[in-house]
Fold:
Amino acid sequence: MNILLKGGTVVSSKSSKKADVLISGEKIIAIGKNLNTDAEVVDVTSKLLFPGFIDAHTHFALEVSDTVTADDFEFGTKSAIAGGTTTIIDFATQNKGENLSCALNNWHVKAFSNSSCDYAFHMAISDWNNDIKNELPAMFEQGVTSFKVYMTYPLMKLCDKEIFDVLTELKKFGGIAGVHCENAGIIDGLVEEKRRLNQLTVSSHPLTRPDYAEAEAVNRLLNIAYAVNTPVIIVHLSTKAALDEVMRARARGQKVYVETCPQYLLLDEEKYSLDFSESSKYVCSPPVRKAIDRKSLWRALKHEEIQTVSTDHCSFTIEQKGAGESDFTKVPNGMPGVETRGFLMYTYGVKKKRISVSQMCAYLSENPAKLYGMYPKKGAIKVGSDADIVIYDPRVKQVIKVENMHSKCDYSPFENVKIDGSIDSVYLRGYKVFDGKNIMNEKIGRYVSRGRFDL
Ligand code: URP
Ligand code: ZN
Ligand code: ZN
Structure:
């Protein structure tokens, strides 16, 4: 039986227009005014229809800091669906000494038959040598076309020459790197200083990862990309200083894509002054920042200087965070976010008139689909696209409560935050997977083999 979503407002990056949407099987087959068919009619009057959100930055079932993230693919993807995210791109992560095929296979095993939303993988490269270089063609053949490189974290970081080589190789295949930009030397030096002074509470976390450490790494990366003459993505950009570096590089003609996350748009570093049980919830890298940074990021979204808003969902329970009670460097880094991104961007972006509803669609759906080689299968309500649709009811008011969420994490960094709107329902490839409260048709998520970036 076909499904007709009738009377809603269809949002794209260009417009929001009243139109009916007809779904047959897994695809959208017609869009228009007053469509009449013998399909099952779903009345979506007064509701917004977004292309299923894409979260291009999640870490599910990641082994890190002597533990494993609270959300695996089962819980993480349910949490995604309940937040309107129908596709995630997780970071398959190469451990040092491991090859890329092994890392990719590990991630397929974690995700396969456990995922309630569709999923794809970036490959995080932590070890670079000739054998790894020779594996790149196989990655592209298997639909992995974007790669993460870290400029910090002892177990992950590559040096400048290695980054130069990675970018050079990716360029040959039309691939792209997303880079975690923080200056490792500055961070390590400042941490040593804090240790010497025995200042090991969470309040030291932002002080050891200052904005200039991010800006310096962005600047260095962009010079490396300039030398290679290739585009690059800055992931989870958090500061005005770093954004200024991006703008300078663009002014000399470079193609630079920027991702930010709701925590950098909405949370203040004052969180790190709270008691350990609270402050540890916000330990992530880069840390959350100051008002001047948030203002600059919102302005950049308004002017489309940032291309995507993802979450960097990397969840740990309060108990797991407790590992760093007497030493902030031992708090596992990261926070949950995959379930709250759409609500936060609608309420604090669209309703506050910082961005338009079409820009929200661009940042959460259309741009990530294009940037990561999935458009127009994903990221669009168009004839022929997958019927991944979020039906958002802007009239409802609610408050974020972890008890209503689907993640395995036992807190939300946005607990008690007021929200305009709620998700009425979510469709994934034509299947109704969320009714506003419950996940339905669990674990039908499929691997998405991606093409080259095109934004
Ligand atoms: O603190 C964070 N962001 N943890 C996740 C790993 C990363 O750097 O993206
Ligand atoms: Zn990172
Ligand atoms: Zn991350």
